[in-house]
Amino acid sequence: MTLRINDTAPDFEADTTEGRIRFHDWIGNSWAVLFSHPKDFTPVCTTELGYMAKLKPEFDKRNTKIIGLSVDPTTDHERWSNDIKETQGYAPNYPIIGDADFKVSKLYDMLPAEVSGEPGKRTAADNQTVRNVFIIGPDKKLKTILVYPMTTGRNFDEVLRIVDSLQLTAKHRVATPVNWKRGEDVIIAGSVSSEEAKKIYPQGWKEPRPYIRIVPQPE
Q: What Å distances lie between residue 46 and 20, 33, 202, 208, CA to CA?
């Protein structure tokens, strides 16, 4: 199974550090970020889980739930949380999925279907493809898919920026330019004709080229 943007995010039931969930029900009417890890007690992932705990209030402001996943049982996740707090200053304050049976990793095309056996006998390198970020809308559709190598820590400030862009462009017929941050100018979507644009933006717009129509970010 190959997942693409605008596919429905696969639903599943799983145990987490905050109890058992059904994923779509857990998302509810919120946005969601699912980010995965190849194994507990790994150095790069330890920094990432701590930083996401620090950022959680910003995701909360954006009606966005965050949830981690690691290819180990939840009992290991709970022990790992102590290390994360001691070394990063923040303990995970969001659920972490226990994926010891590889069910979710396979469902999200992060591990091959033939993977089996005891998770404890697999190394992080065995699971190195479980390094994804999925941003999911309230409609349960995949809006963004990011994949990182094990040796490169993820930029979760960028994930937050993507959420800002997704939420803005879901509400308004605009696109966000390179390195855009919330509050900066945006581009009128190509699907909006100039006649429509005049009604939406009676104050006009900057147009360095006919296909680049720049306006202040809508409220």
A: 23, 17, 50, 45
Between CA 217 and CA 117 the distance in angstroms is 51
Q: Do residues 193 and 99 both lie within one domain?
A: no
pLDDT in tens, 23-62: 999 999 999 999 999 999 999 999 999 999 999 999 999 9
Nearest to 97 by CA among 65, 120, 74: 74
Tokens 């056996």 correspond to what residue?
A: 117
Residue 173 DSSP code: S
Distances from the Cα of 6 to the Cαs of 110, 112, 134, in angstroms?
A: 18, 22, 11
**Is residue 84 within 8 Å of 91, Cβ to Cβ?**
yes
How many Å separate Cα 195 from the centre of its chain? Answer: 36
Residue 179's CATH number: 3.30.1020.10
Instruction: Determine which helix (DSSP H) or strand (DSSP E) holds 199, and give its type and residue range.
Output: helix 194-200
CATH number of residue 39's parent domain:
3.40.30.10
Could you tell me the two tokens for 68?
A: 């981690």
What is the domain count for the chain? 2
Enumerate the active-site residues: 45, 139
